[in-house]
Amino acid sequence: MNKYDSAESQINGIINHLLQLITKLLETKSGLCIAVSGGKSPIGLFDKLSQQDIDWKRITITLVDERFIAIDNQDSNENLVKTHLLQNKAREARFIGLSNTNMAIDSVVDHLNANMPEIDIAILGMGEDGHTASIFPCCNELEAASDLSTTKRYIITNPTTANYQRIGLNMSALIKIPHLVLSINGNKKLEVLEKALKVQNKQPPIGLLLSNRPDTKIFWSE
Prior knowledge:
Pfam families: Glucosamine_iso
Number of strands: 10
Strand content: 15-25%
Number of domains: 1
CATH class: Alpha Beta
Helix content: 25-40%
Radius of gyration: 16 Å
Largest sheet: 7 strands, parallel
Enzyme class: hydrolase
Structural class: alpha/beta
InterPro entries: 6-phosphogluconolactonase_DevB, 6PGL, Glc/Gal-6P_isomerase, NagB/RpiA_transferase-like
Distance between the termini: 13 Å
Shape: globular
Strand order of the largest sheet: 1-10-9-6-2-3-5
Order of helices and strands: EHEHEEHEHEHEEHEHHE
GO molecular function: 6-phosphogluconolactonase activity
Protein name: 6-phosphogluconolactonase
């Protein structure tokens, strides 16, 4: 785990890691797909990442998860990414969203499972309840979302402790992504994370993820 004494130094650490990783991968691949998380925490990272000298024309940005709402809603992860990441030099990147309220949610998920490209890098966050992506400990879909044998990558979840119906990657899909980055802030989340590292079952979801992917690069700041 990489620990920092400020959010700024944490962001710099993540940026340096991503730049090295992306540069290396683009030496052998024609393009990359990077999935990012929403919420307020990644805004500083997105703003700085958008200014980096990356071959953005070869980068596709998508989301780890999304609320099933209109993309112009202030709570939309797509809206957040377009406002803070797909700016500056990153304007040249391609973007694929997850939400389309003109369709039934089941049809949207079917479309994503049939058409989404493979993801090379995922930048994940974690809630104080140990959820990651939209796999919440409280959701009725927890068992299905945590099923490591499923071949479908996207799932609908209905968390009881958060607003909106969600679409996101399930645990099976997350652990198959070649390169995982986890960004967390605050002592409360650090405590949750350290406890989760000792748990061998599905609670909380971040514990299941890290037990299957101990190579996840973790970046924490106070």
